[in-house]
Amino acid sequence: MRLVPTRSGWGRRGQGAFTLLEVVVALVILATSGLVLFSWINQNLATATRLSDAQARAQLHSEGVAWLSTVNPASEPEGEREQSGLRLQWRSRLVEPMRTEDDYGGNLVPRWLIGLYRVEATITRIDSGLRAEWAQQIAGWKPAIMVAAKPGSPFGPPAGRAGQGGRP
After folding, report:
1. Which of 14, 81, 139, 164 has the fewest other C-beta atoms within 10 Å?
2. Spatial distance between the Cα atoms of 127 and 147, rounded to a whole number of angstroms
3. Under the phi-then-psi rule, with left for phi > 0, alpha for psi from -120 to 50, and beta for the rest, what region is 84?
4. Could you tell me the sign of the dihedral formed by the alpha carbons of 4, 7, 11, 16, in that order?
């Protein structure tokens, strides 16, 4: 086999061999496309991890909201509960003053005082440390006390009707 000069350099006649420059260019193109592919895969994995964490926090938040619905902030303005590997903590403050319930007609004696509370809560999954924080408004209630109500007060008979046994 004899090497002879050709237009593209030294090589064998009649065979389509690659030159060193063509091989290097092909390797550069292959390496660049490989880097782009690996970068894209890494970005997709990071996005999938963030989405998984966000979904877990959303599920945890949903469980916390359901659990917090069992709390009456008028009787428990702050507290902590643990159950099934979860810890719920909350702190509340009254944002609307306590009012008597409406009876829509004035014939019923109010039995409840109702107020609006702003509750800031945190729920934590104890084993993994995953946590969700949120704030929401919740109604709180407590019984209206009927002790020695004065006439004209919201809890007593109407003014001018005291001592008449409830008859006009």
Report:
1. 14
2. 49
3. left
4. negative
Residue 19's CB: how many other CB atoms inside 10 A? 12
Selection from 29, 28, 24, 4 nearest residue 14 by Cα: 4
- Give the model confidence (pLDDT) of 42-100 as tens digits: 999 999 999 999 999 999 999 999 999 999 999 999 999 999 999 999 999 999 999 88
Cα–Cα distance for residue pair 168/164, rounded to 1 Å? 7
Instruction: Dig out the tokens for 46 from the structure.
Output: 């990071």
Query: pLDDT tens digits, residue range 25-39?
Result: 999 999 999 999 999
Coarse DSSP helix, strand, coil percentages of the chain, rounded to the nearest 5 percent: 30, 30, 40
Residue 134: CB atoms within 10 A of its CB come to 13
Listed in sequence order, the DSSP H helices in 69-147 are none
* Structure-block tokens of residue 30: 């292959």
Question: What is the model's pTM?
Answer: 0.61
Q: Could you give the dihedral angle defined by the CA atoms of residues 141, 147, 152 and 155, in that order, rounded to the nearest 10 degrees?
A: 30
Q: Where are the alpha helices (DSSP H) in the chain?
A: 20-68
Q: Map residue 99 onto helix, strand or coil.
A: strand
